[in-house]
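Ligand: adenosine-5'-diphosphate. Inputs:
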Amino acid sequence: MFKKVLIANRGEIACRIIRACRELGINTVAIHSEVDRESMHVKLADQSVCVGEASASDSYLNIPSIIAAAEISGADAIHPGYGFLSENTYFAEVCEACGLKFIGPSKESIEKMGDKIAAIELMKKSGVPVVPGSDGPISADDPKIFAMAKKIGYPVIVKATAGGGGKGMRIVTSEETLQNAIVMAQTEAKAAFGNPDVYMEKYIEEPHHIEFQILGDKYGKTAYLPERDCSIQRRHQKLVEESPSPLISESLRKKMGKAARNAAVAVKYVTVGTVEFLVDKKGHFYFMEMNTRIQVEHPITEMVTGIDLVKEQIKLAAGEKLSVISEKVKILGHAIECRINAEDPDKDFIPSPGKIGKLYLPGGPGIRIDTHVYSGYTIPPFYDSLIAKIISFGADRNESITRMQRALREVEIENVKNTSSLHAKIMNSEQFRKGSVSTDFLSKHIFGK
Ligand code: ADP
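Predicted complex:
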């Protein structure tokens, strides 16, 4: 097992990883930017190193500084968390070259899944169902795109091959807007990922976003865990997740779980990852992408299975054998996660950084809070707006919702606008309470557009 792990991240996930390390008896090194000196992850870690100025490119994305921090502090492994360098093949490669274990899959697995077109191709070969599409990058001045879109059938969606966080996507309903959508998606993709390539696929109407956690060891054993339903999204970004999904029957769970496991086997996946699918009205499912890291929403799976995914991830990276057997995993109850962002829901979700005054976060039976904020903490404007995750667990969906409603009423974050009131509206909505909702739920039922 590792002796000392450097956490190349910040915020709630850095705190989560430090906690897992502590339970495993591993020492921890936090890295931080100049504005993050007072951050919770710095306080929780055994050691900390400042790696650069406020902007992420100078600090949390600064590979030479991070590697130097690991070497100076004597760490033997690096945990990248999510976002930042977590899916960066070059970083994984540099870590290994410097004798530091990268806590994640091999650089080959990251590479294969990082390019969405290549990933879709590989999935097709492995017998995993995929959305019908262009099978390669497209360009606005290629006259063939019109016939292609017609064959796929409108509406189609133009997506970035390097995509992430819902960026670089355009839905196209007719021929007239196709070229324009391609150019817009390319511009957005270039700005967000430095790669303008886009492809086209069928837009699945009223889809449900269902994903499966997978785990793998270096001896070739893989497992999948019960699904997460992440259909409640704003601009293709997840806001609420739940497990299990009210949409998924036991037989569909098995079928999709096995497809997820096939995806993991196809890339010889080691540690933890997620296979994302879209499910249409008829219950047909399609591979969308694989995330080769721990996800924001991992706690709901931890609650319903009793498995500590971050500890598993570290153990698998250290070369331990996988002990999870999918068929033996029981669903212990129902869990929901609400992402509380420092954004103003009444002003088109503009970020709301600043100093938190009084802070009361909920507790009591069935409530877990993953956060890095505290009373008097100043939320810097430079990073992600996620400030807390409220996770509710109950014997069934109804209890989990009721507990979340109760918890949301207890939230008090003085001076910082946040999304807790939006979550209360979602929890109170009749459509949500009835069962699984599709990805257009927020725009249709909450914002009424
Ligand atoms: P990202 O990597 O940016 O998160 P994904 O491929 O995971 O992008 O897609 C994010 C979301 O966009 C999905 O959860 C879904 O809501 C929507 N989406 C993506 N592809 C399609 C599609 N073919 N049909 C319908 N919705 C889609």
